[in-house]
Amino acid sequence: MVSLIWLMVMCCSCCSSLVEGLGVNWGTMATRKLPPHTIVKMLQDNGIKKVKLFDTDYNTMSALAGSGIEVMVAIPNDMLATMNDYDSAKLWVKKNVTRFNFEGGVNITYVAVGNEPFLKSYNGSFLKTTLPALKNIQSALSDAGYADTIKVTVPLNADVYESPANNPVPSAGRFREDIRNLMTQMVEFFHQTGAPFTVNIYPFLSLYGNPDFPVDFAFFDGASPPVIDGNIQYTNVFDANFDTLVSALNSIGYGDLPIIIGEVGWPTDGDINANTNLAQRFYNGLLKRLAANQGTPLRPNAYIETYLFGLIDEDAKSIAPGAFERHWGIFAFDGQPKYPLDLSGSPTLTAAKDVQYLPQQWCVYNPNTKADVGSKLIDNMNFACTYADCTVLGYGSSCNGLDEKGNASYAFNSYFQTQGQKDGSCDFQGLAMVTTQNNSQGKCNFLVQIVGFDYSSASSASLSLLEMSVLLYVSVMLLFF
Ligand SMILES: *[C@@H]1O[C@H](CO)[C@@H](O)[C@H](O)[C@H]1NC(C)=O
Ligand SMILES: *[C@@H]1O[C@H](CO)[C@@H](O)[C@H](O)[C@H]1NC(C)=O
Ligand SMILES: *[C@@H]1O[C@H](CO)[C@@H](O)[C@H](O)[C@H]1NC(C)=O
Ligand SMILES: *[C@@H]1O[C@H](CO)[C@@H](O)[C@H](O)[C@H]1NC(C)=O
Ligand SMILES: *[C@@H]1O[C@H](CO)[C@@H](O)[C@H](O)[C@H]1NC(C)=O
Hints:
It catalyses: Hydrolysis of (1->3)-beta-D-glucosidic linkages in (1->3)-beta-D-glucans. By secondary structure, this protein is of the alpha/beta class. It is 32% helix and 13% strand. It has helices spanning 2-16, 36-45, 58-64, 86-96, 130-143, 180-193, 203-209, 237-251, 276-291, 375-387, 404-418, 465-480; strands at 23-26, 50-53, 70-75, 107-113, 151-153, 155-157, 161-162, 174-175, 197-200, 227-229, 232-234, 259-264, 295-296, 299-300, 306-308, 362-365, 432-435. The chain has a nine-stranded parallel β-sheet with strand order 5-4-3-2-1-15-12-9-6. The chain is globular, with a radius of gyration of 24 Å. The model is unreliable at 1-16 (pLDDT under 50). The structure holds 2-acetamido-2-deoxy-beta-D-glucopyranose (5 copies).
């Protein structure tokens, strides 16, 4: 009897949260990166079949070749102006799409033109260049014969639409007034080309940005009083936000345009609400809904193509938005799962395999230093934290509560590890020393970094594995015909 119940529980938990075609964002802004083939194996081991990139890095693309994983490649914002020139767009397509399109190559399904280019904090820097870049890339792809297989989209921040302050309900959603014209042209273009609208939705940021935001409304367990919108009751901000976009699209005559979620997720450190418990609560709710193809009140019973943010922590991301920016991964920097998550019918994630770590040693404050070190300690700590990650030291984070010397030790170690433990990186004017004793305490992890993969090493000039496999393929074909 007990085992029967257990079996039933197993069955329900496995089937209920199996999300068809779930994707993840694979960013690489880390000081030390796992080798791309290690990541691709990790994706496969976890049943992840779609990935969204922020560029078209050659090493990454080579590792994805033949994996069967569907890929959204991207053109970074700083290349948008260049893509306003049609010949440059054509060259980009040749070098970054056509090159990987061979039997056993990379299955590119989308090109993302820019990344949240209309974010208010960019002060309008990309308002003039995004749409022309989008059109040029679309034409270049069409010319190269990809019009049917590759769709061109622009991942947009949810701040491109809003509801008026005096009527803050999803049905009142409109595109932001300062870019309404531009958004209308862009949406018309998506409609013509059969491309989806890609939006990044972050319930965590709703909570982070507004101290009065009801915490439960960020999650999917319906514990907070609903927002009433006509005869619809919204019980979570994800639905409300999504439907605000549906209303905005509807207001310009494209209420049926497909929408995909380019980024959604929850960070685990760097803020009082960023921890593994809340991340797990968020993902459990999200994945169940996605698996059930429940849709939202304005688009019920719909499959929503979704890319989680993100795959792995990136300790070199800008922390302008907040210290949590470096902790979005469902995996830690070394490919270790942070908490149980059911992505593919297994209750836990599978860690990256064969990860190579640096030696088991740390850099810490040297207790034999003369007592009065004063501002020298602060200066050296600031130096370390400028070049390495110290975001776990702040309020609400995993290493908050260390004393001043503990802080210094954390900072020194972070720098030492980021530098690959190289000679001279644990000195700090004589304040630091190397130790083989693990100073981690409680949730505060003094980490030992990974060896790290050099993404600049395999230059496209040398004959790479990928090109060799193309050659091999071509010569095998010649043999047969
Ligand atoms: C291809 O993409 C890479 C990475 O995003 C970029 O550095 C490179 O300039 C692109 N190639 C061309 C010809 O635009
Ligand atoms: C690439 O992905 C698309 C979309 O799922 C699929 O229809 C197609 O069969 C895939 N192509 C290859 C070569 O695997
Ligand atoms: C936007 O403007 C603000 C205030 O003038 C400035 O601090 C910030 O650096 C600007 N950002 C960009 C991306 O230009
Ligand atoms: C340790 O560093 C954090 C983050 O900079 C700071 O908030 C905290 O006050 C520091 N603790 C001490 C004892 O200096
Ligand atoms: C150091 O100790 C922490 C906490 O006890 C542990 O989680 C971590 O794995 C240890 N690090 C290494 C490199 O052994």
